[in-house]
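TL;DR need structure tokens for one chain.
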Amino acid sequence: AVIYDMDDLMVNSDPLHSRAWEKLLYDFNYTFSDLPEEVRANFIGRRVADISREIIDILKLDTDFDSFYKKRTEIFFDLVEHELEAMPGLVESLKLFTSDNLKIALASSGAIHYIQFVLDKFSIRDYFDVIISGDFVKIGKPNPETYLVASEKLGFLPKECVVLEDAMNGIEAAVGAGCKCIGVVNVHTPVQDHSKADLIV
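>> reply
TL;DR here they are.
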């Protein structure tokens, strides 16, 4: 089986995520770049809820989590609806794996309503046998739970699954779960460490 990550692997979302943080933090008299680069790089591949808690803590923001997260979701969705683009080769890769009769899963840190939006926007829902959202696990990436759940739902052992990942946190999750992992370099995101992947492309 093949398991896809979504953000910055299937769709070019990091620039929109960054702009959403920028718009949100403007209300608190901060910019996204006020956060150290290594901190921002470590956000790639993680759940927005987990990142939100970390930003509130780091910047000592005078806000509660629920209203902060709700506003962030609204800003991001407005950007996604109008500007989100698929990554080159997405549909071609899905067609290739389907023609090889491989089972295909999507295992993302994203919220389920965001995943559903992406699948419908690019008309690719039918390619996926299993869909796992960050909402479906107790602990998000880099914890391996996301990929353990995905392989279980597919009916395969983790070692029988190949994960496609762009992010260091996602690669760590895939390897920790016992899956094979292909690290896909994305020039649009902060530099990621792909060294733990079995193959880098």
